[in-house]
Design the sequence.
């Protein structure tokens, strides 16, 4: 069975109604990155950061996977599929994808602020209980923080993702401008000669061996499935 690795970015979830962070009307326009998405921001004002992610979670709960997410999940009928996502939503899982590697954390989880990657202190939140009261402690006595990789922090899953990319027979990129590192560097781990497809409505220069389908996630996936 051929192996497909799919790398997805914010453009994957736009059709589901989630704003991207970087676009003109994105979330960073409303909330300064330094205050809500850096380690310094967390240390300066954990209450602000906790409330920001409470707000994001509430927005996320009503959101459903779009056709693009579902078509990615359907690839599993014929291929061994690993999804590597820069997104912190869980729409790939909701759509049925079995193997999802989150590079930038998961919005629906909270963790210890001194030992974020220790699963003992991670909690998965539910729609009924998706808000964390500022000041709530994790099991190790530190403040509970969002299970999000803040800007400037190491990306723990990048090594696992790179290993997956090295074994891909087909590599698909959806909804990312390939500007955010280290995720953008994953393309360099794909073996020479492996077909690479890039689905994004905006023209992106990603190299001569990349076939771009200049459409949104759903329409682009429909076209790609015809090609495969």
Sequence:
């Amino acid at each position: 069975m051929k192996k497909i690795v799919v790398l997805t970015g914010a453009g994957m979830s736009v059709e589901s109604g989630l704003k991207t962070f970087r676009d003109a009307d994105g979330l960073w326009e409303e909330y300064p990155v330094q205050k809500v998405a850096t380690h310094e921001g967390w240390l300066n004002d954990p209450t602000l950061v906790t409330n920001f992610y409470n707000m994001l979670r509430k927005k996320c709960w009503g959101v459903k996977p779009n056709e693009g997410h579902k078509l990615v999940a359907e690839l599993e009928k014929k291929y061994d599929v690993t999804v590597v996502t820069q997104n912190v939503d869980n729409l790939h899982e909701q759509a049925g994808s079995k193997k999802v590697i989150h590079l930038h954390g998961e919005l629906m989880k909270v963790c210890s602020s001194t030992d974020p990657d220790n699963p003992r202190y991670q909690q998965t939140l539910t729609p009924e209980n998706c808000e964390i009261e500022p000041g709530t402690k994790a099991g190790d006595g530190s403040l509970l923080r969002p299970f999000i990789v803040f800007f400037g922090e190491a990306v723990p899953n990048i090594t696992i993702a790179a290993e997956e990319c090295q074994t891909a027979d087909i590599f698909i990129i959806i909804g990312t401008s390939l500007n955010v590192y280290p995720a953008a560097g994953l393309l360099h781990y794909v073996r020479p000669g492996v077909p690479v497809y890039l689905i994004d409505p905006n023209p992106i220069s990603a190299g001569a061996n990349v076939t771009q389908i200049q459409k949104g996630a759903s329409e682009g996936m429909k076209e790609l499935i015809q090609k495969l």
